[in-house]
Amino acid sequence: MKAAISEQEALSRLAAWCSSAEHCRAEVGEKALRWGLSAEAAARIVARLEEERFVDDERYCRAFIRDKSLFAGWGKVKIGQALRLKRIPESVYAPLLDEVVDADAYLSSLRALLASKRKTLRARNDYEARAKLARFALGRGFSMDDIGRCIDLSDENE
Length: 158
What we know:
The chain has nine helices and no strands. It is mainly alpha-helical. Helix 1 packs across helix 3 and helix 7 packs across helix 9. Keywords: Cytoplasm.
């Protein structure tokens, strides 16, 4: 079994890790605890990294929200759930969801997602197709209001 590393070495390793990519407080703290540091030492390291701006939850949220909405095609609900799992307070990420995600781009990505899913959908009738599309979009983290708006628009375009 490896010996636990010193607090100073953990600080330098975590600073290097945080400088290579964005990480939230919880990820940094968990990594320090996995290395065998005490909870107090991990808290001191996280505080120091925040003080030196290696860790910033707001900056992390901006990057996370932008990446998940653009590249993974996630909706606001799923992004919010993922950030809650990372123990980021809602007061930090809730205002950023509307600020970072452009409403028009958000709805157009949902429309494109529904259009591509509709091509592969097997349904006996229109009601079943709409239900399957709604379940699919809900799983991707979009709200029912947005889904209803986009499904109605796609029905009118056909």
